[in-house]
């Protein structure tokens, strides 16, 4: 296939523009694996990644669909209740990140990957759908990613997709980095799935502050989120132009010595199918597009 290269002994799609290069695996959830500019890694991928256990790999950008994060029914995790009362199993962050996508179109700087319903999805999610992930590598180190969700069912399709960007950031530098993220409120999920809100008391967050780990910035007030290191004169701008509004941006890292930090635009909140915060419905026969652009011109 045009634009296919071997990466860690795996066939992946390669997009390239000037000094910017992106690698994507259709076979592993349409995951953006690595994105780099002039050899400097922006999106992290570990050199020792275990491709047989991709859900455990801390890197790339796992695509979260149809639901993001954790779901509960009566305190039991990985469950959700349909409108008819049926309780179904749904893995954390949905099933797309572990699914095989089909490459529909590809050029040197763009690719369209598609997931459709089949017998393996209908038990967890009894809807007919088409979910496209579209990548466009643009000049000046900009990467656009679009989610295009189409309802092929005869009833409204519930969903709230999301990104899980692993940005390369050495843990020793965390105190040098700040995130400009104005929002209406902050939130967290309780151990049984409810959302607890608290006042958003600052628009500037330090990545050294452990309080922001696994916290939701709900209803962002700007279409731009900026990750900035004033000492090194480096920044990355995450643009969220829509047209479907991003409901929250989640911040997370795994350990004090993890050399990555995750900034995750989500269309809804965890367990929204139950509490309704950010729950979206696509009408029968209709489509929705959610766009996100990473601008690494000053990375």
List strands and helices in order, with pairings.
Blueprint: E1 4-7, E2 10-17, E3 20-25, E4 31-37, E5 40-43, E6 72-73, E7 76-77, E8 79-81, E9 87-89, E10 102-106, E11 110-116, H1 119-122, E12 129-138, E13 142-151, E14 157-159, E15 165-168, E16 178-180, E17 183-189, E18 195-199, E19 204-206, E20 215-220, E21 224-229, E22 234-243, E23 248-252, E24 260-266, H2 272-275, E25 280-282, E26 287-295
Antiparallel strand pairs: 1-2, 2-3, 3-4, 4-5, 6-7, 8-9, 10-11, 11-12, 12-13, 13-26, 14-25, 15-24, 16-19, 16-21, 17-18, 17-20, 20-23, 21-22, 22-26, 23-24
Summarize the structure.
3% of the residues lie in helices and 47% in strands. It is mostly beta strands and 299 residues long. The chain has one domain (4-295): Beta-galactosidase, Chain A, domain 5 (Distorted Sandwich).
Give a description of the structure.
The protein is mainly beta and 299 residues long. The longest helix is centred in the middle third of the chain and has 4 residues, at 119-122. The protein has helices spanning 119-122, 272-275, and strands at residues 4-7, 10-17, 20-25, 31-37, 40-43, 72-73, 76-77, 79-81, 87-89, 102-106, 110-116, 129-138, 142-151, 157-159, 165-168, 178-180, 183-189, 195-199, 204-206, 215-220, 224-229, 234-243, 248-252, 260-266, 280-282, 287-295. It has one domain (4-295): Beta-galactosidase, Chain A, domain 5 (Distorted Sandwich). The radius of gyration is 18 Å and the shape is globular. A nine-stranded antiparallel beta sheet has the order 10-11-12-13-26-22-21-16-19, with no helix packed on it. Strands 15-24-23-20-17-18 form a six-stranded antiparallel beta sheet, with no helix packed on it.
């Amino acid at each position: 296939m045009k634009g296919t290269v071997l990466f860690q002994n795996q066939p992946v799609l390669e997009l390239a523009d000037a000094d910017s290069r992106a690698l994507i695996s259709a076979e592993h959830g349409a995951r953006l694996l690595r994105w780099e500019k002039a050899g400097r890694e922006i999106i992290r991928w570990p050199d020792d990644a275990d491709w047989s256990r991709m859900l455990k790999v801390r890197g790339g950008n796992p695509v979260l669909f149809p639901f993001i994060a954790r779901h509960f029914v009566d305190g039991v995790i990985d469950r959700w209740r349909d409108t008819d009362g049926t309780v179904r199993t749904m893995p954390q962050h949905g099933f797309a990140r572990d699914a095989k996508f089909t490459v529909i179109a590809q050029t040197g700087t763009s690719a369209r990957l598609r997931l459709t319903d089949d017998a393996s999805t209908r038990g967890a999610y009894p809807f007919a759908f088409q979910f496209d992930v579209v990548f466009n590598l643009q000049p000046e180190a900009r990467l656009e990613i679009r989610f295009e969700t189409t309802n092929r069912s005869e009833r409204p399709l519930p969903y709230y997709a999301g990104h899980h960007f692993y940005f390369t950031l050495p843990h020793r530098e965390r105190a040098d980095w700040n995130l400009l993220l104005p929002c209406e409120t902050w939130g967290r999920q309780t151990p049984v799935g409810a959302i607890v809100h608290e006042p958003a008391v600052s628009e500037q967050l330090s990545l050294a502050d452990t309080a922001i780990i696994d916290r939701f910035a709900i209803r962002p007030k700007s279409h731009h989120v900026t990750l900035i290191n004033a000492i090194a004169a480096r920044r990355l701008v995450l643009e969220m132009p829509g047209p479907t509004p991003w409901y929250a941006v989640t911040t997370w890292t795994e350990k004090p010595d993890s050399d990555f930090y995750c900034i995750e635009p989500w269309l809804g909140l965890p367990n929204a199918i139950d509490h309704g915060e950010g729950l979206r419905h696509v009408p029968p026969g209709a489509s929705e597009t959610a766009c996100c652009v990473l601008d690494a011109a000053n990375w």
